[in-house]
Write a structure and sequence with these properties.
The radius of gyration is 15 Å and the shape is globular. The chain is mainly α. Helix 1 runs antiparallel to helix 2 and helix 2 packs across helix 4. The chain is built from five helices and no strands.
Length: 141
């Protein structure tokens, strides 16, 4: 039961922000705050992972925020914040898996777009829709 609650919350977070990222190139700070607080509350209430697991998952988002700062947002701050929140729910390894799947899917799809001359190397592309696709794929694997 608790796994369904956690996965439903992450799916909803990724769905809302995936649509926003695709359409507007941004994520919703309000949704990140709300889902982050809910994730902490659920973790305390359900006790499904240790504090260190949740902190490790959130730490991955912090590393992306640092990367965003150092690369002048080659990866957006919103992506880092989103992965910070998903890390609260998923823990380090599952969050790393989510990031890896999203990155691989984006590389494959954008690579095909480049070969078809639909995407340019300098184009800014939203990451969250690829994270959503990766998460959906993990639900069925």
């Amino acid at each position: 039961m608790q796994e369904k609650i956690i996965k439903s919350a992450v799916f909803l977070l990724l769905l809302v922000n995936g649509i926003l990222d695709w359409r507007k190139g941004e994520v919703s700070l309000v949704s990140l705050v709300l889902f982050g607080a809910a994730g902490i509350g659920l973790n305390v209430w359900l006790g499904y992972q240790s504090f260190l697991e949740a902190a490790g998952g959130a730490g991955l988002g912090v590393l992306l925020l640092l990367t965003a700062f150092l690369t002048r947002e080659a990866i957006g701050f919103g992506d880092g914040l989103l992965l910070l929140v998903t890390g609260i729910y998923l823990g380090f390894w599952e969050n790393l898996n989510l990031l890896f799947l999203g990155a691989v899917l984006s590389a494959v799809i954008l690579g095909a777009g480049m070969l078809a001359d639909k995407v340019k190397l300098k184009d800014r592309v939203p990451l969250v829709p690829f994270l959503l696709l990766g998460f959906i794929g993990r639900l069925f694997l």
